[in-house]
TrEMBL record:
PROSITE patterns: RIBOSOMAL_S14. It comes from the Eukaryota. One of its GO terms (molecular function) is structural constituent of ribosome. It is found in: Mitochondrion. Pfam families: Ribosomal_S14. Belongs to the universal ribosomal protein uS14 family. This is Small ribosomal subunit protein uS14m. One of its GO terms (cellular component) is mitochondrion. Keywords: Mitochondrion, Ribonucleoprotein, Ribosomal protein. PANTHER family: 30S RIBOSOMAL PROTEIN S14 (PTHR19836), RIBOSOMAL PROTEIN S14 (PTHR19836:SF30). GO terms for biological process: translation. InterPro entries: Ribosomal_uS14 (IPR001209), Ribosomal_uS14_CS (IPR018271).
Amino acid sequence: MLFRRKLKMSFLEKMTAINEENRCIKDNHRRELAEKFELRRKLYKALVRDPTLPNELPRNSSFTRVRNRCIFTGRPRGVYQFFRMSRIVFRTLASNGMLNGVKKASW
């Protein structure tokens, strides 16, 4: 019984040592990367803080503000990107046979 506990403790100690070693390796790798990219990061920060560059860009110049809208109704929700139309317009046009290659699914 004592022998098993001793083995388990030594195994746990080994695993702890391995984990500590891995943490040290990761930390050293991070330090090397930080040293390697130090100059580049400083240049980027200097560009951001440059007073001669314009301080602000127009808010609408961001890609995140672009919204997909239906080309027929202007509806912003439920728009199929491939067809650029809302689900409502798509259904009416597809059921009337006005969209080439689109048919109702049946199985």
